[in-house]
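Cont'd.
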Amino acid sequence: MGTRPLNTAAPSNAALRKTAGAIGGFIIVTLLTFVGLMAITFFIGRVIPIDPVLSVVGDRATQEQYDAVRIAMGLDRPLIAQFITYVGDVFQGDLGHSVSTNRPVAEDLARVFPATLEMATLGIIIGVGMGVPLGVWAAARQGTWVDQLIRVFALLGYSVPAFWLGLVGLVVFYAGLGWVGGPGRVDIFYEGLVEPRTGLLLVDSLIARDFDVFWSALDHLILPATILGFFSLAYIARMTRSFMLDQLGQEYITTARVKGVAEWRVIWTHGFRPIRVPLITVIGLSYAALLEGSVMIETVFSWPGIGNYLTVALLNADMNAVLGATLVIGSVFILINKLSDVLYRILDPRSR
Amino acid sequence: MTTMTNWLLDDSPSSRLQASLGHSYRVTRMLMRNPLAVVGALILLVLILAAIFAPWIAPHSPLGQNLGQRLLPPSAAHWMGTDELGRDIFSRVIYGARITLLIVAMVAVISAPLGLLIGAISGYFGGWVDKAMMGVTDVFLSMPKLILALAFVAALGPGIENAIIAIAITSWPAYARIARAETLTFRNSEFISAMRLLGASHTRIITGHVLPLCTSSMIVRVTLDMAGIILTAAGLGFLGLGAQPPLPEWGAMISRGRAFILDQWWVATMPGFAIIIVSLGFCFLGDGLRDVLDPKQGGKS
């Protein structure tokens, strides 16, 4: 006690180099994964459909029209050249034109993405706020009925279809009890009142100091976000429990208990502190998964986010929009994944 | 009975059959001590029985319409009520077990061996083979599964076969990772070297010695993944991309019931309970199997 390890005062050169190496490796791996993602969307868009030209010109086009479109689409060139053009387009933010909205897909996605972000963010806050304490509680009471109950509750998160829970939630809390707002982002008469600055309605309404809109938006957001949060809660609680059990089995915990440290301190100070770093990865992964899970929830709640955009595009066979949305959700997913990975490596003292 | 048990638990089994039966017996006995796992196994048993004996269990035809009896609430005649075409929901849920079982089985049959083979080859050979194969696997692994499945179905067209293909394409990478990790732990061990010295070919070592050792962790993982596969399939059905009407697929049934949810709640809710119970069954069983077959991982992840 008393003397602190030297390397916490100033990071050594070696540590810095390690961090730089980790970041460099992170960038390369992430870029490669993005190219892989683009290869998949390219494959889905250009190779699987029987004839992409036919879907543009329709089946009544003449041979000349057909050939002209085929050349205009670049389909006469070798696949690899087509792929390189595709990657170039994507990096310039060109995701093609949506047939159903008649606008560039990239523009559409930028407009709908904040709604999804808002829901997923509130969802992860709810998931972490409830999942971590539940996981710690289950670990502290390992083997008791509390532990079993939390286990079943968490497994329910793996077994309940999100769209079904959304429907039941609407019936019970909106139609039945009237506690929350219904489908949509805000009550109809508040729509378009607030100038969209960030696209996040809660933030925008606070900036505009329009609290009626704020409460209405929160009213509509709370149910889908809670349901979404429930799914991350399941994973977070399970992981917290297993990390905690690992820690609580260590000898220093026994030492602390023998010394007579209060049980809540043993759990929260000695047990919980070391698991904060691995938990960051878990939370990052759950956040990314929520962006994906929002597809189903948004459909049920008519939430004007990227998931709803994707499902509407799917039903209209609007392939550019489908692939654009897939690419954006996939990229955010990969980015959060890799970021939490690199964050873990930087924060965990053992991997320095 | 005791001689049978003794034969099963013999420490030095005299045949392969005896050894593997003995192993299964021990696993089953340990599973029986976990109440949740027993519940899971029972749910699965009921699912399989319902799928096989659907025509005898279901009181009505799953497709027979009766417009005079549409949207009836649950009663003694219709345990789960009737839908908008007067079809008995209970009968449709029972027949739906066939579709769910088909999807789950097909996905497992396609993706588990694929992942197993890729992972085992990758881990066994190492070097650039490993780097290339795991690179591709990691790309697939870091992709959101549901979105990818949606995109594949969008390109392939809706339908139950395409839903199975799309889900299988998105679920093999996790199995490849596990098989590779498992293979790495014993690729340099003596029994593999001994086989090589005896002149066994790579194919023979992989199929005869590497793959069997990966199966137990694979079984655990596949069982745990089943719930996710059922949910994805139901989600595709809900969006109208999976099984097409009039097939009694649970997700599609919920989607139809959505229009009546406020007045006739049972149409959408009943199939949902079926999905939850079956998924929970797989989760319970997978959890129990992991504790037994994979003690190092017990309680983790």
